[in-house]
Specification:
Order of helices and strands: HHEHHEEH
Strand order of the largest sheet: 1-3-2
Radius of gyration: 20 Å
Structural class: alpha+beta
Number of strands: 3
Number of helices: 5
Distance between the termini: 52 Å
Amino acid sequence: MANDERVFAALHDPTRRAVLERLRSGPKPVGEIASGLPVTRPAVSQHLKVLKEAGLVDDRSEGTRRIYQIDPKGLGAMRAWLDQFWTAALDAFAAEVERAEKKEDK
């Protein structure tokens, strides 16, 4: 499976999206990420594993805890994939504006 496919497959799950959103404000341990989610702490750990395999989060040891954070490289790859659509849309828009301007000049 290509990396962009892993990213979108990982983000398909609403719990994983919620986990990623919780990390938006900065690094957190599993317990803090799991707090308030409708799944168990071990389930959150499994979701973090999927996000890590997709390249969206990274972790580090801090004593006996694992601290998770968003991996900017993974988000950058996802953004680059999405940007190809924006580029095509903007190019089409610019071409349409140019066509309309030429039509007005006639």
